[in-house]
TrEMBL record:
Belongs to the beta-class carbonic anhydrase family. InterPro entries: Carbonic_anhydrase, Carbonic_anhydrase_sf. Signal peptide: none annotated. It catalyses: hydrogencarbonate + H(+) = CO2 + H2O. GO terms for molecular function: carbonate dehydratase activity; zinc ion binding. Keywords: Lyase, Metal-binding, Zinc. This is Carbonic anhydrase.
Length: 237
């Protein structure tokens, strides 16, 4: 796979009748009782938007089975991933987060500089036409989180390193509760296997964070107890 030059192969275009598919779903599949808020497994999956990398398929997920967050590369260090996870933590609850990258990912074949240059050059002959005026400023401001290659690394080594980086980013972020296990995985598109990556955590948690949380809770509870005792004393007088 060429590094930094874009993916060499693309699926042939084939129209799909989304309206007919939805009508069939409404008539033959949809069941209102299954549409209760909160995924049944309480598992959140962060993975790539690549159509070939589908947790519904490789995990055989049923309806309302898991929360799935998708973006280019399945990268976690984005505001939208953090916003989404934090919202789920408040509106429902999470028993585990799975970070899943995959082989032959488009983000392996390009770089931030490549994507940025393609937008700023804005070739009027590119497929689907050129970008609007003003795209250059956006291109320069955005981070695309393409995978970085180190000299001599194999694709597997790049993916394992990126999974560890993304898991550890979430694990160390204050918006992600220390009690939630976070695990890392690679979906192998050659054989369909989802293989776990050792991210250096104990059951997906960081024991140091758990201790910090206990210490924080202890201080908070002690402070609240002192406040309550003080209020009782004022009332008694």
């Amino acid at each position: 796979m060429a590094k930094g030059l874009g993916h060499p192969e693309f699926q042939a275009f084939r129209p799909y009748d989304f309206k007919a598919a939805n009508e069939d779903y409404m008539e033959n599949v949809f069941s209102k009782p299954n549409m209760i808020v909160g995924a049944k497994s309480r598992v959140g999956i962060i993975t790539c938007c690549d159509a070939r990398c589908s947790p519904d398929q490789f995990f055989r997920l049923g309806e309302n089975e898991a929360f799935v967050i998708r973006n280019g590369g399945g990268r976690t260090a984005t505001m939208d991933v953090l916003r989404t996870i934090a919202s789920i933590e408040i509106l429902s609850d999470i028993k585990e987060l799975k970070v899943i990258h995959h082989t032959d990912c488009g983000a392996l074949s390009c770089s931030d500089d490549f994507i940025r240059s393609m937008i700023t050059n804005n070739d009027p002959l590119m497929k689907d036409g050129p970008f609007l005026q003003g795209s250059k400023q956006w291109a320069e401001a955005l981070t695309y989180y393409a995978f970085s290659w180190k000299k001599g690394e194999s694709e597997r080594e790049v993916l394992e390193r990126s999974v560890v980086e993304d898991v550890q980013f979430l694990r160390s972020h204050p918006l992600i509760k220390p009690s939630i296990p976070i695990t890392g995985w690679i979906f192998n598109q050659d054989n369909g296997a989802v293989e776990e990556v050792d991210c250096g955590l104990e059951d997906g948690r960081d024991p140091r964070q758990i201790e910090l949380l206990k210490e924080q809770l202890s201080k908070t509870l002690n402070g609240e107890m002192k406040s309550i005792i003080g209020d009782i004393g004022k009332t008694a007088h």
